[in-house]
Amino acid sequence: MRRTPGAWLFGQRTVFSDGSASPIFHPLSDPMPSAGVINVRVSTELAETSGNCKVRPALRWSDDGIGWGSSSTIVATYRSTTGVDYGSSYVDITALGAPKPWVQFGLEVANTSGTRVEVCNASLMVEPKER
User: Fold this and answer.
1) Are the CB atoms for 130 and 34 separated by under 8 Å?
2) Distance (Å, rounded) from C-alpha 100 to C-alpha 35?
3) What does the pLDDT look like over 31-53, one tens digit per residue?
4) What is the residue-averaged pLDDT of the chain?
């Protein structure tokens, strides 16, 4: 995936499912201060998958950058085919979960079918909107 100027590119990293359709959050970014980050456009890339791995962009919030809450999806639709899916619109992340001083971006990963653990490589690009 090609990074857009001003965007943050995280990955490519190996991510995995737990063998079910329940998502597992994989943090891709370091903890970041959330001040000033309101609207983001996200893009994902999926590679080297057996075809049973699906990913979707997500984030989680923290009061201190150490203890984290549950993840919240940025885009509800999973990606299960290889290639890049460039985001087309901005999302107000302050409406996702309970915003706190720290944010971490990542991917939720689950199986498309079957009960085996699935592994794939994925990346995430987060483009914050300039005020």
Assistant:
1) no
2) 9
3) 999 999 999 999 999 999 888 99
4) 94
CA distances (Å), 13 to each of 56, 76, 131, in order? 14, 21, 30
Torsion on CA atoms 52, 119, 124, 71, rounded to nearest 10: 90
Query: What is the C-alpha separation between 7 and 93, in angstroms, rounded?
Result: 16
Q: Minimal CA–CA distance to 59: which of 83, 23, 111, 7? A: 23
pTM: 0.94
Cα 11 to chain centroid distance, Å, stands at 10
Within 10 angstroms of residue 25's Cβ, the number of other Cβ atoms is 19
